[in-house]
Every structure is written in structure tokens, then in C-alpha cells.
Design a protein that fits this description.
It is built from 21 helices and twelve strands. By secondary structure, it is of the alpha/beta class. α9 links the parallel β3 and β4.
Length: about 500
Amino acid sequence: MGLLVMKRSHIKAKTDYLKLRMLFNNPLTKATISHLLATTDGGKTRLEELMDRLARGEKPRGLRERPIFSLMNTVARAIGVPEEQIPEYMAHPNIRRTILNAAFSIQKYGLKLPMTFYAPLMVVWNITYTCNLRCKHCYENAGTLRPKELSTGELSKEEKLALVDEIADSQIPTLSFSGGEPLLCRDFWDVVEKARERGLYLSMNTNGTVITPEVARKLKEYDFAYVAVSIDSANPEKHDFFRGVKGSWERSIQGIKNVIEAGGNAILSVTVTRYNYDEFQDILELGRKLGVYKVMVYNFIPTGRGKEIWNSDLTPDEKECVLQQMYDFLLEGGSLCTTAPQLGRVTLDKDKPEFAPIAHLGVGKAKDLSLLAELIGGCGVARAYMAIQPDGTYTPCVYMPDVHLGHFRTDRILDVWHNHPFLNKLRDRSQLWGACGSCEYNRACGGCRARALAYFGDPMGPDPGCIRNKEYFEEFVNKHPEIYSYPETEEIPTASN
């Protein structure tokens, strides 16, 4: 019976997709989209002029505008905007960029599952190498001092401001700051002010230790959508052990409290490893007690300093347990999102699916958004997301820091996004191997490509964190006992010591 219900769910999503495909891939609609994306004498596209009229409360005119209005409804629902509020939001620059991005996406790539977007929906900018902590899993190998071979220079203030313009002009709606510790970047507030002037949707990933009440108020004033603070344990000693600095837990927790007290949205971020696997429920409960907006659960990726603690990764069975705990947390009314795309499989593989994961946006009701889950498509690398390093290097993902796609000083983002062979390769999920290639949830999940690259040297390989790829994980462990053997000398603090 469970298989039958699952198939019915797929049939509904397929039916909805075919309807949209017929709408957006037929010659008449394609001609309409091309017409709407043409630039008028006023310097705007006709689509932008349509959005101007919708912002004034007017309705779409004629057959040419109705299909794009349907697209707007889909995008609006994906970002949580009710249809009746569309006029109110049509004046928001980041929403306008999202709609233009979606229209250009259909014009360039057509409507397919999962979608490849004309420009990234989100860019994560590691704005500085500097950090006041020394976290064991840092993908950037950030700190106050870096090894000489990693000591490349950061962009100047003028270059950072120009990069903001490049992002905004490329129809990228969302910019997320990370690092290093972004608040330690000397140009951070100048860059933020420029980003707000350009109407970008802003968020930040931080260790939270330098979020004073004043900093929290400034983040609220600059309208950050959320501030994600990393917490590795509900136990202060364990957190400090993992972060490499005593007292960091207290300061990070206070940073979360300061964001909330200033009226901002705080997210508690956690990377689940063997250090905190046994207290995952306690961490979720800590988020509830603090009153955070969401809990963000990250995959552990053995890259950067993470290579030094490769054995901290969970087994597929342990990860499956964590995924189920995430699902149960959602059933209980908790708010959660994750970079583990397998949550798509776990949520949609139920007899009666309750949720559909919408990538970093979180989850929605499966009956409403199961198609959207496949359009967004789990892992967003090369389709909806890319990263920028502190020196201006473009990379596919923050967890692929060694894959250089180009550089801000010499390459335009859209040229790299449209033409780089590495990105074009990642977009073709028919080339995935292992269970990731044959899984019926390939479109809604796709596995983590950074984990496949780290483990097998092939971004098209299986994600070893999925229970369906257990044989590949075990084969890797057997071949590399020196990497995955647990050290006997390392003492992890507990509540008692």
C-alpha cells in the first residue's frame, strides 16, 4: 500500500509537471516570454513593466501576460507570498529579480525537473578568511593565521563593492555572507549598505561570538532575513572543544539572544558529527528554548580542516536516524531546514507524505508542493547556488573550495554560470552513478555533490551519507582504514567532565 501511495504522489507531481511543461514549453508561450523579456524604449523589459503595473494593483492583460502571471504565482508560493499579497511584493527588488530569473531560466533552459536557473538564486560569499575561532570542521581553514600556501589576498573594499553590483546586475536575488567570520571583515558594513541599496535579500552565517546588542540592532536595521549562528552542542564544554576556544558557547548563545531581542530572525545551525550525534535531540530542544526562527542542519563535508577529522562523519545508518529525527521534529511543529538533500527522500517516501522539502527554504505541505520540491531539486549546486571565496574566486559550493571556476577580476558571474563545463556536467543528473543515479527521488534530492567529490574524487558519484549508498561507504572505509579509524587518545568532553 505504501508503494501505491508513493506512486500516486509521483503521478500527481508528474501530472502537474506535464501541465506546466505544456504551458511553458509550447511555442506560443516561449514567444510570449521572449516578448516579455524584450527591452522597451524605457530601458526596462516588458516583464518589469508588468510587475510595475501589478504593484499598482492592476491585472495582467491578454494571453501574453497570463502565463507569466502563473509563473509569478508559483514563485510567490515558493517564497511564502500569498497570491493576494503579490501586488505588495512586486516593488521589492529581490522578488523582482527572482521572477526575472525564473523567466530567463525558462527562456534559456526550458522547464525541466529539476530546474536550472538562469542565474544562481543564492550566492554564498565567504567575505573574509579571518576568524576568531578554530573550528575542527572549517571548510575555509579560516583563522587569525593561515598556512602560507592558503594566504591569498582578499578583495579590496572597492572590489567588494563592485562585486555587489555584479551580483545584483546578474539577476541574483539572494546574498548570504559567510567566512571566516563575516563580522570581522573590516569592510562588512560598507558592503552590507551597498547590498541593501541594490535591494538584495540578505542573510548571514556566523559563529555569533561578536554579535553584541548593537550589532544585532544594525543587522535588524539592514533587514537581514535571518542570522544563522553555529552551535555544535547543547553542552558548553563540548561546543568549546569543537570550536577551539573556551567560552565561545556562552558568547554564541548570547549572540542568538541578542538577535532575537533586536527583533531579528535567528537560526541555530548545527553540523551533525560523531561529536554531537548522541545529543541531536538536545540541540533541537535548545533551539526551541531559545526561540530561534529555525534550526539549520548541515552535512559534515571532509574538506578544508574537515579533512583532519574525516572519521567524524556519520555512518549511513546514523545519518538515516538523524534524518528521521528531523522528520519527527517537523511533525511536532518544529521549524527546520537542512543541506542534506536526503530529507527529500525521507519526507516523500512516506505512505502519506506530510512534507515536501524546498531546499534551504525549509519544507511545505507535500500535497501542495511536491512538484515544487522536484523543480527546486534538493542539492542546488550548479543549478540554483554557487559560492565566492574571499579572494574573489568563484567556486561551485563552499564545500568545494578547490574547484576554481573563474575569478571576479577576469570573469563575469553569468559567463561562468552558463558556460563552465564543470557546472554543465553537474546539471545532468542522468550521469550520476551509485544509488543517486537510479533512485526514484533523484529529482527531489540528487545527493550532496560535495560529499561525492570528497569521498570518491567524482562529483557525479554516490553520496556516501545515504542509506541507499551504504555499500559504497563501507567499501570506502575498508579501503581507507587510516582515514576512518577512530582515535583512542582523543577525549571528547561530556557533561560530567
